[in-house]
Structures are given as C-alpha cells and as structure tokens.
C-alpha cells in the first residue's frame, strides 16, 4: 500500500506588499506519495518555487493544511522545522552551489557536519554517495575539473548526505545540455525507483517532466492540470 508523505489541502501563501496582497499559491490540493517522482510545471510566476519552499519547510502556508509524514508543518516550532530540513529534505538547485576550493567528496561531506559524527565516517559516506551517482572516480576532483553534469551529480550526492526522505529539485537541468540533463534525470529516477526517495522536480523542460511518474501544472497559484497516476 502506497504511503502518503505530503498532503496539502487548500494551501494558500499570501505575500503582502505596498500594492496589496499577492497570492503566490491560492488553494492548492496536492498529495505526494513516498517514492514518487513528481514534476511540477508552469510559467514563471505560477507558484512553483513557492510550493517547493513550503514542501521544504523553508516557509509556512498562510492558511490551509500542509501535512508531512502525518505532521502539520504549520504547527511545528522553528527548531522542529530546522530538523525537518536537515534530516528529511535534500535540496538541489539550478546553480550547483559547490564550494570551489573543496573536492567533490569534501563538498558532499560538508553537508554532514551539522549532524556530527567523526570525519572518517563522513568521508567514507561521501565517497559511497558519489559512487551511487556514478562519480566514484571523481571524488578527489575540484569542481573546476568537473563538467556541468558532474557538478550537478555532486550536488545530488550532497543532497543525499543525511539520508533524506525527499529530494526537492528546482530546475536541476536548467544549466545543462540535453544529453547531460538526461543523465541527471536518470540519477533522480533511480533514487525514486531503486531507493524509495520521494523526488519533486520543478522544471520548464518537457523532456524532464515526461520522465516523471506524475506531472502537475500550476498557473496563477492554482493547479490547472495533472497527468499520471
């Protein structure tokens, strides 16, 4: 039986400005299951990034219910939300955001530091994660010696460092050519299919979205369509 990880009901996120209130999300109803690969599509300003911020516990809804693993995120303290971000969620962005003076392994390892543990264990785990994304032989390389696709795979390994239940990817192939983008999407697919990680990808790219098990489309802060199971 499929387990529901996220359950959003009538979620609104309203920002206040001098020109009046702006509803970035306006009554969203979405369920996301464990191990699902979901693509979120829509034009600029449709609410995609706002939705990702809410799913990642980086922001709270203005109203509505946002359940994560049976917990109402709106009711959690800041400390509890920080724990969700550190332990349950990994983030991947369009910009790789790697530290240029650290090797691939060190870039992955640095994500584990806040949770403690000894350095030898962290280093071994970082190399194992790079092997998982097909970069075991590049563990000692600086970002400047890696291709764009390789850098993004390092970023995915970094997002996996604390064994999250969810990977949230915001335009992860936006800076890549089509061939390299396909390789990155294959890694994300394998995380979902082989490892049971829930993956939510915000994308403008049709070739990325069609690889997802399910697609939802946003416009003006509302869900306007969905494909898949």
Strand content: 25-35%
Helical amount among residues, as a percent range? 25-40%
Shape verdict: globular
User: What is the radius of gyration?
Assistant: 18 Å
Strand order of the largest sheet: 6-7-8-3-9-10
Please give the CATH architecture: 3-Layer(aba) Sandwich
CATH topology: Rossmann fold
CATH superfamily: P-loop containing nucleotide triphosphate hydrolases
Q: What is the number of strand segments?
A: 10
- The unreliable regions are none
Q: What is the distance, rounded to the nearest whole angstrom, between the alpha carbons of the first and last residues?
A: 14 Å
CATH class: Alpha Beta
Question: How is this fold's topology laid out?
Answer:
Layout lengths: L3 E14 L2 E14 L3 E5 L6 H8 L7 E6 L2 E2 L5 H10 L1 E5 L10 H6 L9 H14 L15 H12 L6 E5 L7 H18 L2 E5 L3 H4 L4 E6 L2 E7 L1
Parallel strand pairs: 3-8, 3-9, 6-7, 7-8
Antiparallel strand pairs: 1-2, 1-4, 4-5, 9-10
């Amino acid at each position: 039986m499929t387990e529901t990880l996220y359950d959003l009901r009538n979620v609104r996120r309203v920002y206040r400005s001098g020109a009046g209130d702006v509803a970035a999300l306006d009554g969203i109803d979405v369920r996301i299951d464990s191990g699902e690969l979901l693509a979120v599509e829509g034009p600029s300003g449709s609410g995609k990034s706002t939705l990702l911020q809410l799913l990642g516990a980086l922001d709270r809804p203005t109203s509505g219910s946002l359940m994560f693993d049976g917990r109402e995120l709106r009711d959690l303290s800041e400390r509890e939300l920080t724990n969700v971000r550190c332990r349950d969620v990994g983030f991947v962005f369009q910009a790789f955001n790697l530290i240029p003076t650290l090797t691939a392994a060190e870039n992955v390892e640095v994500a584990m530091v806040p949770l403690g543990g000894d350095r030898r264990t962290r280093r071994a785990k970082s190399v194992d994660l790079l092997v998982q994304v097909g970069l075991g032989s590049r563990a000692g390389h600086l970002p400047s010696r890696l291709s764009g696709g390789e850098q993004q795979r390092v970023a995915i390994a970094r997002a996996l460092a604390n064994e999250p239940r969810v990977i949230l990817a915001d335009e992860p192939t936006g800076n890549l050519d089509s061939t390299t983008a396909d390789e990155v999407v294959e890694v994300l697919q394998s995380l979902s299919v082989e490892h049971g990680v829930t993956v939510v990808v915000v994308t403008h790219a049709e070739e990325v979205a069609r690889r997802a098990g399910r697609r939802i489309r946003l416009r003006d802060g509302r869900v306007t369509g969905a494909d898949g199971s």
